[in-house]
Structures are given as C-alpha cells and as structure tokens.
Amino acid sequence: IKSEGAQGAIRKILCQYRVKDVKSMPVVVKDTSSIYDAIVTLFTEDAGTIYVTDRDGYLAGVVSRKDFLKTTLGHIDIYKVPVSVIMTRMPNIIVTTPDETVIEAVKKIVEHEIDSLPVVKKYIDENGDEKLEVVGRITKTNIARLLLDLANQKKEG
Ligand code: ADP
C-alpha cells in the first residue's frame, strides 16, 4: 500500500461490509456420509471445502481438498469409511457469523491459512453447550469478488 490514506480508505470500506453481505451457500454433508460421497459432492457442488454436520444438523467438522488427497496416501476404503474420520473437527473449527465484519473474517482466513470459513448461528443447548448451525460459507473467492465489485463501483460512480 502506497500511502496511509489509501490504507485507511481500504480499511474503512472493508469495515462497512459484513459477512452476510458477501457470503454464499454452504456445501454440507452428514458425518455418516462416506468419503466417496463427500468427494462426489465436492465435484457436483463445485466446492473446495465441505462442512460436515452431526445427527442434529449442527457443525461437526470441515473437509478440504487436502484432507481428501491425504486419503490417497494410506489404505482407507473411501466407499466405507465415513467422512468424519478425516475431517478437521470441532472445537478446532474457525468460524464467522453473519454480523462479523468482512475485515475480521479476512483476518481469520489469513492468520489460520485456510480457504474458507463456515458462517454460523450460535445456540446454547439444554446442557449449556454451544451448538453451531451452518448458514453460509465465506471463501477467498467471495473476498476477490467484493474487491472487483468495489473497483467497478469506483469506475462507474
Ligand atoms: P486446502 O486443503 O485446499 O489447502 P485449506 O487450506 O482450507 O484447504 O485447508 C487446510 C486444512 O485446514 C485442512 O486440514 C482443513 O480441514 C482445515 N480447515 C479448513 N478450513 C478450516 C476452518 N474454517 N477451521 C479449521 N480448520 C479448517
């Protein structure tokens, strides 16, 4: 960034946008789905990362392309083994919420070196445990699209 002014302007713009303004639909499979079925979903839904839900429909884990690739190194039966075996699981999932600012979400993506964040609504169940309902996803592509939209807006207005 060349000047302090530009930096301030970019920060200001990114703070105006919230996750709900740029999020897209999540791609979700059940934790009982086979690795094979999850890979098929990855292709049919054209997603890089899939979110995995437990039997109550709450977020249980995340599987990325690299997690699937890893299974080719071992002797896992992808038709039989459930996706829950290879996913990154709760509570180690980095999430965002609809009302978080885009700048906060970008910070998480960069700091944790991940491609996407599940957008969640948080609930407390009867045992006092936090449960996360997946309502969207935010990826590096969403951020790139926002930047492009902002650049085009500038030109027109
Ligand atoms: P890729 O596999 O395409 O490099 P990522 O960089 O997003 O995709 O994923 C790297 C690792 O981080 C994978 O093991 C994945 O399960 C995990 N991961 C991806 N997204 C999240 C997230 N939001 N929270 C925690 N772990 C994640």
UniProtKB/TrEMBL annotation:
Shown portion of the whole protein?
60 to 216 of 216
**What is the protein name given in its UniProt record?**
Signal transduction protein with CBS domains
The protein's UniProt keywords, in alphabetical order, are: CBS domain, Repeat
Task: Report if keyword DNA repair is assigned.
Answer: no
Q: Which residues form the CBS domain?
A: 21-78, 87-156
Any transmembrane segments, and where? none
